Amino acid sequence: MPWRQTDPVLERTRFVLEAERSGIALSELCRRYGISRPTGYHWIRRYQAEGLAGLEDQSRRPHCSPNQTPAEIVDELVRLRQRKPNWGPKKLLARLHRLHPELALPAASTVSAILKRKGLVEPARRRARPDRALVSQSVEPEAANEVWTTDFKGEFRLGNGQLCYPLTISDGWSRFLLACDGLPAARYELTRPAFVRVFQEYGLPDRIRSDNGPPFGTHAICGLSRLAVWWLKLGIRVERSRPGKPQDNGRHERLHRTLKEETTRPAEAQVSSQQARFDRFRREYNEERPHEALNGLSPADLYRPSWRPLTSETPGLDYPAHYERRQVRKDGRIKWRGQLVFISELLHREPVGLEEIDDDVWAVYFASLRLGTLRDGKFNPREKAKAGGGIS
């Protein structure tokens, strides 16, 4: 029978004291307190052995659990976490399985509890939930080299006082980090050679996604920049994230958080040592670090170079035969029907293609990009990339 619905410890205390001092028969006393005789004897024995402390509720947790994680696995997890302090339970498990496939590993929730118990987890800072909206004209990659993503991680100062601007280029499908170069500035003259090297090593992608800032975008027509013009001439389509919406390039932003945590706190003293640190991070990120989105595989397990090599040809400017072709002059104008029509100074010395889409209405293209329409001798630029637009 249960104790009466008051404080159980107080009731037990009253019961054992009455049993000791009142002289009332135990069966009668148990009936008054609404408990069975075995329960009464149990608490009397506890009181005699431990005093009043013995009447407190005691933990029902077993002294040893048959499901407890073996000590050797706990030690391996702790050692791996200490080497990789920014890896979570799933990455630790995936890496440990590769190193020791013979071990029966615990669940990720168990690993999380072990890390907390060992003091290896810092309380997470609350972050604002990001907007889940996607770039409406972006392409979700289904294979390597369909979409590359690129950006400059925020600049930081080296130990010698020099600013460093890390340029990162990544394959959007496999997460393979193609480049991580510490540049002295985010300028076209410095960025293009980095892309030349990556194109020579890995070939050309179908698309490149970036933000709208320099050197990727400008306030020119369709947000074009010298870098974007070069990509379009190579036959690469260009995508842009929405202004002020870094989540449109969310995978790359997540890469930057990891890069910042593991390579810039603290920064190295010299450019050479900082670049060596970037190179070590890139090798580990590509070859060792398991990715949850890749089912625990590393990017190097999935990535293969593009079949499109970098050549001196410009396939993006091979307009169809029915297009009219005009050369953009130095002042940004083309000659059309005896008139000079302004297009863009950014395209000087570049050919544009014109396709008739209605009676005396012409769509003006640069490579795969439609710049606007030409009607009655007047050029109407295409509206700048709308929210979620891009310039592909």
SSE arrangement:
Blueprint: H1 8-21, H2 26-33, H3 37-50, H4 71-83, H5 89-99, H6 108-117, E1 147-152, E2 156-157, E3 163-171, E4 177-183, H7 188-202, E5 207-210, H8 226-233, E6 237-240, H9 250-263, H10 271-287, H11 299-302, E7 324-327, E8 333-336, E9 339-342, E10 351-358, E11 361-366, E12 369-375, E13 378-381
Parallel strand pairs: 1-5, 5-6
Antiparallel strand pairs: 1-3, 2-3, 3-4, 7-10, 8-9, 10-11, 11-12, 12-13
Helix pairs in contact: 1-2, 1-3
What's the helix count? 11
Kindly identify the CATH topology of the largest domain: Nucleotidyltransferase, domain 5
Specify the biggest β-sheet. Answer: 6 strands, mixed
Number of strands: 13
Walk me through what this model shows.
The protein has 392 residues and is an alpha+beta fold. The chain is 33% helix and 18% strand. It has helices at 8-21, 26-33, 37-50, 71-83, 89-99, 108-117, 188-202, 226-233, 250-263, 271-287, 299-302; strands spanning 147-152, 156-157, 163-171, 177-183, 207-210, 237-240, 324-327, 333-336, 339-342, 351-358, 361-366, 369-375, 378-381. Strands 1, 2, 3, 4, 5 and 6 form a six-stranded mixed sheet that branches. Strand 5, helix 8 (226-233) and strand 6 (237-240) form a beta-alpha-beta unit. Helix 1 packs across helix 3 (37-50). The longest helix has 17 residues, at 271-287. The protein is elongated.
